[in-house]
Amino acid sequence: MDLVLQLFATGVVVGSLYALCTLGWGLIYGTTLHFHVAHGAVFTLAAYYAYVGQKVVGLPLPVAAVAAVILAAASGLLIDRLLYQPLERRGAVRTTLFIASLGTLILVENTLAIVFTPDPLRMDIGILQTSIRLGPVFLTALHLLTVALVIVAAAALMLFLRHTRSGQAIRAVASAPEMARTVGVDLRRIHLLTYAIGSAISAPAGILVAMDVGAEPYRGTTFVLLASVGVIMGGIGSIPGALLGGLFLGLIENLGVWKIPSEWQSALSFGVFLLFILVRPRGFFGRRVASAEL
Amino acid sequence: MAAYLAHYLVMAAIYTILALSLNLLIGYAGIFSLAHAAIYGIGAYASALVALRFGFGFWGGLVIAALVGALAAALVAIPSLRAAGDYYLVASFGLQVVILTVFMNWTELTNGHAGLPAIPRPVVFGWVVDTPFKYVALALALAALTYLVCQRLTSSPFGRVLQAVRDDEIAAAAMGKDVVRVKIVVAVLSSALGAVAGSLYAHYITYINPSSFTLHESIFIATLVILGGTERLAGPLVGAFLLLAIPEALKFLAIPDAVAAPVRQILYGGLLVLFMFVRPEGILGRRRVRSTRAAAGAAS
Amino acid sequence: MTAPPVLAVERLRKTFGGIQAVDDCSFDVWPGVITGLIGPNGAGKTTIFNLVSGFLRADGGSVRLRGRELLGRAPHEIERRGVARTFQQLRLWNKMTVLDHVRLGCQSTAGENVVTLFLHPHRVRVDERRARARALEVLDFFGLADRADELAEDLAYPEQKLLSMARILATDADVLLLDEPTSGLDTEWLQRIVPIVRGLVTRGKTVLLIEHNIALVSELSDQVVFLHQGRVLARGRPEQITKDPALTEIYFGV
């Protein structure tokens, strides 16, 4: 029983990491309909920004982390500004944007692999390493920080989308871009904002993972693709859905270990995913299915 | 030197089959798949296993490979294509991961990381294929056959339906075409052919292990297709032959081994981005006049 | 109107996030007659088309084709049942030839089935010849036969409109929904298209069309359904509707 509780707890922690990714990626996908795989590059860059901030520039960890988030937000924004928007102006279709995104992800990952080597680069996380005991469960301060962060991020995002003008503009664009444009919303500006926010929300996930096991150049690909799975399972356009989707993935992965050998974790997650879309393509809370509908 | 050239030709032929089959999905059905390496691997393992365990011949192995590949595709395509294009992309990623996990961990079946050695040489109509020249002949013949199959498919009424589905599936549905069924058929065919490439590979290299069938490999195959050009049948062929020459060309640049792989990847990634800006239709594509598509009209 | 209606729309409803786009709409479409859906912008006309053809899911009501319910079916199934539609934005396949557009309409040609394609090449050839002949005949009806091998994107706009109608005529559907067949056409083309649309009825089709040009309504329809804010305000002969001052005010006043 203790084992199950421990696995559940780790599942929540990993699920929170995934949820940070699904929240950010889901916001971008839901608003722009871009299949932004380069989000994985932003995730990875955030980790390296933090590493360089602390280990090369010598900043204290919190400062390095915050700086990394800001830089990651800027990186995401730049990808839209320098890649997607120019391509869209040339009349690019969605597949073209996806391919360019994929190419960017590959470029960034491998450049980082050359500059920093493929080996994980560890950071000093000081007190965050301390072990905390909650009943039979052992977690580190870093783990608790992760869960706290995703709760804060989800709440902040919800408030932002509901109560600020920019947030409402983003929602308008997400539900009906043509209509939003008619009422005067500057689509390009909203896209840039969406990318900045989406990247800022997922960046901490990359940083937290780096703090835990080190910064690695190729991890972003797995995370972004898992994020897309989580978004679909949770339901496109829903914040609770994104949270639930990410959490669900983390829980399957970890609770699965109880009965199934750990090497089969990912197979289990995807098996569940396929079953899910067979039964409920809309996801937990999705309003719509991402299809070519009128 | 001749052996070297023969190796290049065999691999180029194998990748031609992979690229042609993937292009059925990407170029003709308008669906992106990240699982083609997994399908490739399924074909390789299926063929190798029936040869090693049950003594199947080359053709038998080929057929089994195609069937298993088709089945795997169907299992993924049927639930995900009912929903929409992006679902297949994500599901294909899932398939890729699951299949690779099976290759690496179902050790009783696949021998895991150690791989399957001593796969027998193909015997084609009583003729043992054991020299480079013979392999080249076999590989090129299979590639040509694949090309003909794809050509028959795409220049037929079915090909017409495919084009309609790809260019505007709403209009296709309004004309009575079962868009989902069409896409599923293409996914199944594409995988059957991709698995055939795997079978050929297994009997050529005579040793397979999971590292040849990763997500990176899927992306590489997609890169061949995209750079070669998705609009013409010969595009993937050009992509395969050209891109396979690149690693060889790079060898002349004396890049240190440690960074050779990332450097190659940077080149592919860079080419992908560059092409999307400069020539998204690929090398063999028809230069098209760019136009922004208007969104579907709202209520009137 | 003693024959039973081919298409019976009953209490159709559709809401879009708070806006009642189609509200309790009921009307019938009879065979051998052109029914026109008219009304000011945003009245819900295209939404009704989308609901009937299966591209939108209705919130309530029923649409019966010869007594059988259409709602809830997929668009391609509805077309197979006999209801085909055009789109206001045409939705042609730009890189496809005119002939191919129409050939696609000829149903279940053997070559569309992959198994038949490879195993019975002879059957495919025969079917293709039949499809080609039928397609050319349809193109001839629309006056597009000489453009058969051109790409759709190379046609003039009026010809593209004709093509969008030609391809659905090639299907076996007997109920044709035409979404604004006359919009964007100059007077010369208007003269040409009216007899073509009438000709569809002569060929045995039932036509329901959306018409924006109130001047054309009398020429183009035998029955008219006036829609406003999602509701059916009036049904009747064109003269009754277009001469009604209250309705005209609604039409032009909004």
CATH superfamily membership of the largest domain in chain C, which one? P-loop containing nucleotide triphosphate hydrolases
The count of DSSP E runs of length 2 or more, i.e. the number of strands of chain C, is 10
Structural class of chain C: alpha/beta
Largest sheet features of chain C: 6 strands, mixed
Query: What is the mean predicted local confidence, pLDDT of chain C?
Result: 89
Largest interface: A-B, 53 and 53 residues
- Distance from first to last alpha carbon of chain C: 33 Å
Return Rg of chain A in Å. 19 Å
Please name the CATH architecture of the largest domain in chain C: 3-Layer(aba) Sandwich
**Total strands of chain A:** 2
Strand order of the largest sheet of chain C: 6-7-8-3-9-10
**Proportion of strand residues of chain C:** 15-25%
Q: Return Rg of chain C in Å.
A: 19 Å
Our estimate of the beta-strand percent of chain A is under 5%
Uncertain parts of chain A: 290-294
Count every helix of chain C, treating DSSP H or I runs of 4 or more residues as helices. Answer: 10
- Look at the structure and give the mean pLDDT of chain A: 90
Instruction: Give the terminus-to-terminus CA distance of chain A.
Output: 51 Å
Decide which structural class fits the backbone of chain A.
mainly alpha
CATH topology of the largest domain in chain C: Rossmann fold
Quick overview:
Chain B is an all-alpha fold and 300 residues long. Chain B contains twelve helices and two strands.
Can you characterise this structure?
The complex is a heterotrimer of chains A (294), B (300) and C (254). With 294 residues, chain A is an all-alpha fold. Chain A contains eleven helices and two strands, in the order H-H-H-H-E-E-H-H-H-H-H-H-H. Chain B is mainly alpha-helical and 300 residues long. Chain B has helices at 2-29, 36-54, 58-81, 85-105, 107-110, 132-154, 157-167, 169-174, 179-205, 215-228, 235-251, 257-278; strands spanning 123-124, 127-128. Chain B has a two-stranded antiparallel ribbon with strand order 1-2. In chain B, strand 1 (123-124) and strand 2 (127-128) form a beta hairpin. In chain B, helix 2 (36-54) runs antiparallel to helix 3 (58-81), helix 2 packs parallel to helix 4 and helix 10 packs across helix 12. Chain B is globular. In chain C, 39% of the residues lie in helices and 23% in strands. Chain C has 254 residues and is of the alpha/beta class. Chain C folds into two domains: 1-82 and 172-254, P-loop containing nucleotide triphosphate hydrolases (Rossmann fold); 96-170, no CATH class. The two termini of chain C are 33 Å apart. The radius of gyration of chain C is 19 Å and the shape is globular. In chain C, a hairpin with a 2-residue loop joins strand 4 (60-65) and strand 5. In chain C, helix 5 (121-142) packs across helix 6 (157-169). Chains in contact: A-B, A-C, B-C. The interface between A and B is large, with 53 and 53 residues.
